[in-house]
Every structure is written in C-alpha cells, then in structure tokens.
Amino acid sequence: MNAAANFRIQPEPELLGQTVVVIGGSAGIGFETARRAREEGAKVILTSRDPERLRRAANELQAASSSAFDATDSASLEQFFRDLPNPIDHIMVTAGRPHYAPLLEMDLKQVRAEIEEHLMLAILVARNAVHKVRPGGAVLFVGGTGSRRPGLGLGLVSTMTAALPALVANLALELAPVRVNLIAAGFVNTGLSAELLGGEIENRRNQLRSTLPIRRVVEPADVAALAIHLMTNTALTGATYDIDGGQQLVAR
User: Fold this and answer.
1) Domains of the chain, first to last
2) Taking each helix axis from N to C terminus, what angle separates 108-115 and 155-175, rounded to the nearest 10 degrees?
3) What is this structure's pTM?
4) Nearest CA-CA partner of 114 in 159, 147, 162
5) Strands (E), 5-123
C-alpha cells in the first residue's frame, strides 16, 4: 500500500474563524457546546452567574473572554452586549433552571422570576442580538420537552414549554436574516439534573436506560452536536428541535 492510499483529507473545521457566545456556558450543555465550538475552530465567549466556575471553564476552553453576571438582569445583559466585539456569529442561551410547584402555591415574585428567567430573557437576548449577530448567524435557545403533559406542580414550567416555540418562531421573522431556533431537551445527564433529583438521580438514569428507545440517557454532548448543526446549517430557522432519546414516546 503506497503513501497516497493512507492520505486522508481532513475537513475544514465548520466554525473556523467564527465567534460563539454561550450564555450559561460554565457547565452542562452550555459548556459542552462551547467545547465543541472550540473543536470546530471558533472563538468562544462565556457567561455564567458563578464567577469561580466560569473562571475554570474559561481557562479549560481557552475562551476569548468571559463575564460573570445574572443574565436575567437587563442592565447587566445590555452592558455585556455593548462590550462584545462586532460582529459575532452565534449566540446560545442555556441560562435558567425549571421550578416545580403548584401554581396556586407559588409566590407571585417567584412566578415573575420564572417568566424573567425564560421568556423575558429570550426577548432581551434577541433585542440585543439585532446589531451584533452577522446575517446568517444563529441565536439558539434551550428549552424542554418534559412538561408538555400537564401535571401537578408543572403549571408554570408547562406554560414556558408551550410559549417558547411560538416566541422563537416570531423572533425568527423579526431578526431575519439572523436565524433563531429552539432546542427542546428531555432529561439530560448534567450536574443540574443531579441537583434537581438529588438521591433519585441514579434511579432516574436506570429507568431511562431501560425504557428509552435509544437505551441510554441523553448526554450534554448529544445536545451540543445538535447546537453546532443549527449554527452551521443556514437553512434552519424558526423551528423547535426535540432531543430526548424518544422520551416522549414512552410512558413516564
């Protein structure tokens, strides 16, 4: 076998020379997406509420820059966008966490905070992205699939789950030619999932391994792969992409 037979052409990294901003990028899905973006040649800019965790993540990924702040604080978010280089190519928003409680028992401040953390954050990011993201670039939001069925304690989470696809579709029209899409994830094997489920986390993993059609749990790398595809495929906008390993196809 000659040397030419062993020669393989390496594809050019898909995000070479581009800049990817990950809001909520210090752990879990956000961190894994930033890592994949770096592998594809992108510069990454990370944000997080937790300064120490953000510092570690930024160092590990050799991030171009990082900024610690609460993304739901509109003044801090606007300042962050003002300070960004212009233009950037893609933004991914993974900030926020679900809150489970019966609607009639929730304090109104908690309800408002939940809306701020999801719907208002998406609107604020979109407003600030208008003059920062290049035409054809992508703004990605991360939501969920697990609360599409009604249930006690799921009222507000279900409302956010239903509202985000409609919001994203409308933002895709308003931000065009910047593309806007939503990743709707089921259970993902992250530190946040472990924190939410506590001592039940391993039981949940085992249940999903035995019942999901894919016979394994969804990992952050699975979601990151989808996110990179949504950044690079310029025909995709205004849609919701489920990634749950078939979780919606089986009984709870």
Assistant:
1) 16-243 (3.40.50.720)
2) 30
3) 0.89
4) 159
5) 19-23, 43-48, 65-68, 88-93
